[in-house]
Amino acid sequence: MADRTESSIVIDAAPGVVLDIIADFEHYPEWASEVKQTRVLAEDGDGWADQVEFTLDAGAIKDTYVLDYDWDVDESGEGAVSWTLVSAQVLKALNGSYTLGAVGDGTHLTYRLAVDVKIPMIGMLKRKAEKVIIGTALQELKKRAEG
Fold first, then answer.
1. Which residues of 68-96 are buried (b: 16+ CB within 10 A; e: fewer)?
2. 20-48 b/e with 16+ CB inside 10 Å = b?
3. Residue 27: CATH number of its domain
4. Which pairing describes strands 3-11 and 106-117: parallel, antiparallel, or unpaired?
5. Which pLDDT score, from 0 to 100, does residue 1 have?
């Protein structure tokens, strides 16, 4: 069963700016250090990515996988972006979401992630990898949006 980890951060940028960074999969390897490569496999009619392939190296977890995205956001960028795992070699589950809300002139961003792997892994290592993925993603996203 997949454990779930959650963390939040306030970013000094409007939700629309943060959402644009989240949706710009082509540039993930520039700011998300554990993401080594991305490729958009399918888009909906509005230009939102429906399926994206990632190559991940997060220490204990290394894999190439495909995620299916759901975009439930308004024009200001507020709402939720969620994803579910379609296929992977090592991962059994990688489901999560970003929830974006306006706070003053910035964005309150919550990242939820549930990870499970096909190979036996000590729970402590898996939780550490989840925390590294979330912590790094939030800090690097904040740096990208505020930079």
1. bbebebeeebbbebbbebeebeebebbbb
2. ebbbebeebeebbebbeebeeeeeeeeee
3. 3.30.530.20
4. antiparallel
5. 45
Is residue 2 within 8 Å of 65, Cβ to Cβ? no
Look at the chain and report how many structural domains it folds into: 1
Which value, to the nearest 10 degrees, does the dihedral of the CA atoms of residues 40, 49, 82, 90 take? -20
Strands 106-117 vs 91-103: parallel, antiparallel or unpaired: antiparallel
Q: Tokens representing 9? A: 């951060």
User: 113 near 67, Cβ under 8 Å?
Assistant: no
Structure confidence at residue 21 (pLDDT): 97
Q: Model confidence over 6-58: pLDDT tens digits?
A: 899 999 999 999 999 999 999 999 998 889 999 999 998 788 999 999 998 87
Please tell me the distance from the alpha carbon of residue 124 to that of residue 106, in angstroms, as a whole number: 34
Strand pairing of 49-58 and 35-43? antiparallel
Residue 15's identity, in one-letter code, is P
Domain that holds residue 89: 3-146
